[in-house]
Design a protein that fits this description.
This protein has 3 helices and 6 strands; from the N terminus they run ααββββββα. It is α+β, with helices and mostly antiparallel strands. The strands form 3 sheets. It has a two-stranded antiparallel ribbon. It has a two-stranded parallel sheet with strand order 3-6. It has a two-stranded antiparallel sheet with strand order 4-5.
Length: 125
């Protein structure tokens, strides 16, 4: 791995500072994008750290999704709604179709509590 790539990897978030996970594995666990297996059985799990995509923040109301394209062996990031100039690209780290308390539990390993509008709706007048 080049020094530049190593430095980029080490600069990624590590949500496992308070457990005994070794640093390299902790960064992996925090930032990995998983994709379906490619082996003969097709049920193996693989993952990748993606230099840009691993930096996208979470929202339970994301404006993008990702897909692994086997033909090009690459990840695609696709907008699910119009993203305005200067608007943050947001991705969901968990299943957005489950109740708020379950989403919050699923996000605990990332070291934050989601405060998006789906998790903390503002009262209407």
């Amino acid at each position: 791995m080049s020094k530049e790539n190593r430095d980029d990897y080490m600069a990624l978030a590590n949500a496992h500072l308070n457990d005994e996970t070794p640093t390299l594995a902790a960064i992996w666990r925090t930032n990995v994008f998983e994709f379906p297996g490619l082996g003969e059985e097709g049920n193996e799990q693989y993952g990748a750290i993606l230099k840009e995509m691993s930096r996208i923040n979470h929202s339970c109301r994301p404006n993008c999704t990702h897909n692994f394209d086997i033909a090009s062996f690459s990840f695609e990031l696709r907008a699910t709604k119009t993203i305005g100039v200067g608007e943050e690209i947001l991705y969901s780290y968990c299943n957005i179709g489950i109740p708020t308390e379950n989403r919050q539990a699923a996000l605990m390993p990332y070291g934050f509590a989601c405060t998006c509008q789906s998790c903390c709706p503002t009262p209407t007048n």
